[in-house]
Design brief:
This protein is an all-alpha fold. The chain contains 12 helices and 2 strands, in the order H-H-H-H-H-H-H-H-H-H-H-H-E-E. Helix content is about 55%, strand content about 0%. Helix 2 (about 20-40) packs antiparallel against helix 3 and helix 2 packs across helix 12.
Length: about 280
């Protein structure tokens, strides 16, 4: 049970309709931390400490490291930093993640996303965002209010940034980067739902629908779903608490993720000690 429980949490979260990039990184760190704890557990008190189970745990850790090595690390790190709920809290205090390092990371992503040099206002806005000052002086209270409105669901960072706009005006440079990151879905659930919707529309009684008409019907269906969800008319569905559990865990001070450009390892930092995690001997 203890071997499969973290994977069950991960499976539940990755099947969400709006699974974001920042959630993907936090989920990888959660799995790495949980299986590292299992690997160092006392063999006398744990039934899963048999040799074959240790090999399974090691395989999971190796797989996480492999995926972290192959993923676009800059995008994942920036997504967590630009999430107002976390900012730099899940990371260790290292030189690569100080203000200068984060600014270099955001500038790099700006050039990739928009194909131009970052504006000069980006540096001042990033300072205000991380320090809760200037334009973002009241941002923390707004974020807390959005979290309360979300109840047990994981709050949407885009809803938090919308509170910083002036009557639907143009987004600031930092908000443009944040919207580009959080607007992307990190799984294929939305595509699968759309294909299922097409399957319900294109039946034997409607077998001659053109692709334009079927697409228009699907868009109308989705708009009606959004209206019902916003007005509270949608059916209430029981939600598992796995999402809240994991992402509250990410904000705790018992585990920190350190990021070095070009490194492939996860680095877990405790509250009093700091050590690089060796997969064969985690700390």
């Amino acid at each position: 049970q203890k071997l499969l429980e973290p994977l069950a949490f991960a499976s539940t979260i990755t099947q969400m309709a709006h699974f974001r990039v920042d959630q993907s990184l936090l989920l990888m760190v959660f799995l790495y931390a949980e299986y590292s704890k299992l690997l160092e557990a006392d063999p006398e008190n744990q039934l899963f400490a048999a040799m074959e189970c240790e090999e399974l745990i090691q395989a999971v850790l190796d797989s996480l490291e492999k995926h972290w090595k192959n993923c676009d690390q800059d995008v994942y790190i920036a997504a967590v930093v630009l999430n107002p709920v976390y900012k730099t809290a899940p990371f260790a205090k290292i030189s690569q993640l100080n203000l200068a390092g984060i600014f270099a990371l955001i500038c790099k992503l700006w050039t990739r996303f928009f194909g131009s040099s970052p504006p000069h206002e980006l540096f001042m806005e990033l300072q205000d965002y991380l320090g809760n000052k200037g334009t973002y002086m009241n941002f923390a209270a707004w974020v807390e209010n959005v979290q309360c409105e979300a109840e047990k669901k994981h709050p949407d960072p885009l809803a938090m940034y919308e509170g910083m706009q002036y009557g639907g005006g143009e987004k600031t440079p930092l908000q443009k980067v944040a919207f580009r990151l959080f607007a992307n879905c990190a799984n294929s659930v939305s595509c699968e739902c759309l294909f299922s919707m097409f399957g319900l529309t294109l039946t034997c009684l409607h077998s001659r629908l053109r692709s334009e008409a079927m697409t228009s019907l699907a868009e109308l269906w989705l708009h009606l779903q959004d209206e019902h969800a916003q007005s509270g008319q949608a059916k209430h569905r029981l939600k598992l608490r796995a999402t809240t559990y994991i992402f509250n865990w990410a904000r705790s001070a018992t585990c920190r993720l350190s990021y070095f450009s070009g490194w492939n390892k996860f680095h877990l930092f405790g509250t009093t000690t700091a050590a690089i995690v060796n997969p064969s001997k985690p700390s």
